[in-house]
Amino acid sequence: MAEINRSHFNEEASTYDAIHSKLHERLTEEIQARLDWIGVEWANTDDDDDSSQDEDDDVDEPNESEDGPEKSPKSSQPRREVRLLDYACGTGMMTRALAPYTTQCVGIDISENMVAAYNSRAEYQGLSPDEMHAVVGDLAAADGPHPADLLVADPRLFDVATVGGGLHHFADPELAAERLARRLRPGGVLLVWDFAPHGPHATAHFRGSHTVLHHGLSEDRVRALFERAGVGEGFELVVLGSGVSPGHGHSHGHGHGHDGHGHDGHDGEPMRRQVFLARGQKAA
Ligand SMILES: C[S@@+](CC[C@H](N)C(=O)[O-])C[C@H]1O[C@@H](n2cnc3c(N)ncnc32)[C@H](O)[C@@H]1O
Fold this sequence. Notes:
Blueprint lengths: L1 H18 L1 H12 L2 H4 L7 H5 L22 H4 L6 E5 L5 H6 L5 E6 L2 H13 L7 E5 L21 E7 L8 H10 L1 E12 L23 H11 L3 E7 L21 E3 L6 E3 L2 E7 L3
Parallel strand pairs: 1-2, 1-4, 2-3, 4-5
Antiparallel strand pairs: 5-9, 6-9, 7-8
Bound molecules: S-adenosylmethionine.
The site of S-adenosylmethionine has 19 residues, from helix 1 and helix 6.
């Protein structure tokens, strides 16, 4: 299954962002509107900085000395280090949604072309690999993470781990969650987006149907998965409302509907897939 996913997403990488742009835009809005709900102590945000800045920012500060301006509270404020692990990162949708509130983003994906797309977007934004970088890997393999030393070289733990649209592709989502949870610091948060349970795809109209192992995940299953992995503290799942339409498909595969109703195929085959966000925390 892993190999099927790898080769499918290698083929999709160059068109992935264009096909899924609507869903990604919507998810980014939903995630950024829920920063408090996610529950990570984020790196300083613009809002934090505002408190140390006056409207007359460009007016000389009274405490300016002959040696030059003293450091304003803003510039002296050390940035809290917040590390994000984006698993099944693809081109980096979850990373980009949360990057403004973190200091380092590490992506992992089984598809080397997805990883290349993630890294070229990071480079294009002028970010160094220390700030944002993805590597090829599989934490979800039954016989152990591939490569075996994945993430071992850097023993630092993460503040937040994400899996965006990945769980339904994994043979064993529970195992993947356990391996991710091990990489979280105490109090760290696992954040997932995926599909609520839905009927099977019409294979003729959805090129990626062979990569999907789970036709959505129920709240009970997701809750149990978080709890078993040790990240069940404060578990919450929200089904996102109108306007979320998965963009799977090919030439006409952009979702047009609301509440997860869209059209997956040439003949308007209806699809009903609702997207949820779930979060839970590792015991501190
Ligand atoms: C639907 S895409 C989601 C990409 C991205 N997270 C997003 O939100 O747009 C699923 C991703 O899971 C990756 N994937 C599938 N199986 C995987 C596995 N066992 N380990 C790591 N990545 C995997 C695929 O290569 C693909 O990039």
